[in-house]
Write a structure and sequence with these properties.
It is a single chain. This protein is α/β, with parallel strands linked by helices and 272 residues long. The strands form two sheets. A four-stranded parallel β-sheet has the order 3-2-1-4, sandwiched between helices. Strands 5-6-7 form a three-stranded mixed β-sheet. It has eleven helices and seven strands. It folds into two domains: 162 residues, HUPs (Rossmann fold); 91 residues, Alpha-Beta Plaits. Strand 1, helix 2 and strand 2 form a beta-alpha-beta unit. Helix content is 44%, strand content 13%.
Length: 272
């Protein structure tokens, strides 16, 4: 490890050692997996990974969380969150993530209280700058962000996760299925199911960085810039499968994959 990474890891371990126990919001991404792995070493037997289950979580991700926690040797719980019962969440305005994280914190609070534990989320230093109202909701509810406090960037996390041998150290960024629906378009279970099936199909073809943005009759596919040519070459089969799923039109975004792509609309005229 280089000097900067060594210092950040040492700082992270110091921060974690201050807690009696921790409850980690566990999505199965590299950030929460890394945080859980380090916490499990610093606080053995006092680290609980909790996965929030709702229709916005792909089923394969839920299965991956259970497998990862078992490999890490830490306790894993699944809680069902109720954001889909909240009409403010379903209307899908710019505060959708705020409502989601508020619901998550309400679900984690009883577990943390019972275990006399702090609630930790895998927010890192690279998350600064993007539009993330969910972080504000979590912080307001008392969550802590030790990766951010330790100054750990996404690149640093991936590097140390690789050194630790974590199986998902290079896993592409993920986000809930609701993030595929443009702001202002109501979220429905039918829409999310269609998106999930479309993305699962693209992954079966070997694509890694994937988003299928749902515009009603139109699917806008984002893949990594190094996968654009391959996706274009697979146009016939991809178009046929997404037509079968209910999309009349299938497009490929030539700008390639971009996490948080739909957040750009919030800065456009007509949005606060």
């Amino acid at each position: 490890m280089n000097f900067e990474l060594e210092n950040a890891v040492a700082r992270l371990e110091e921060l974690l050692a201050e807690y009696q126990a921790v409850v980690i919001g566990f999505s199965g991404g590299v950030d929460s997996t890394y945080l859980a792995a380090v916490a499990g070493r610093v606080l053995p037997g006092r680290t609980i990974a909790v996965t929030a289950d709702s229709p916005s979580l792909p089923r394969e991700e839920l299965e991956a969380c259970a497998k990862l926690a078992a490999e890490l040797g830490i306790e894993h719980l699944v809680v069902s969150t109720l954001e889909f019962s909240n009409p403010d969440y379903l209307k899908n305005d710019g505060l959708r993530c705020f409502y989601c994280k508020s619901e998550l914190m309400e679900s984690l609070a009883p577990i943390a209280e019972e275990r006399k534990a702090a609630v930790l989320l895998g927010v890192n230093a690279s998350d600064k700058g993007d539009y993330r109202p969910g972080q504000s909701a979590a912080k307001h509810a008392g969550a802590r962000f030790p990766l951010l406090e330790a100054g750990m960037s996404k690149e640093m996390i991936r590097e140390h996760a690789r050194i630790l041998g974590l199986p998902n150290w290079d896993k592409p960024q993920a986000a809930c299925l609701s993030s595929r629906v443009p702001y202002g378009t109501p979220i429905t279970l039918q829409t999310l199911s269609r998106v999930e099936r479309a993305e699962r199909y693209l992954r079966s073809l070997g694509f890694r960085d994937i988003r299928v943005r749902d515009y009603g009759e139109t699917a806008r596919i984002e893949v990594g810039s190094d996968e654009l040519v391959a996706c274009a070459e697979a146009a016939a089969v991809v178009n046929a499968e997404l037509n079968r799923l209910g999309y009349s039109y299938v497009t490929l975004d030539l700008a390639g994959f971009s996490s948080g792509n739909l957040n750009r609309a919030l800065a456009s005229p007509g949005h606060a």
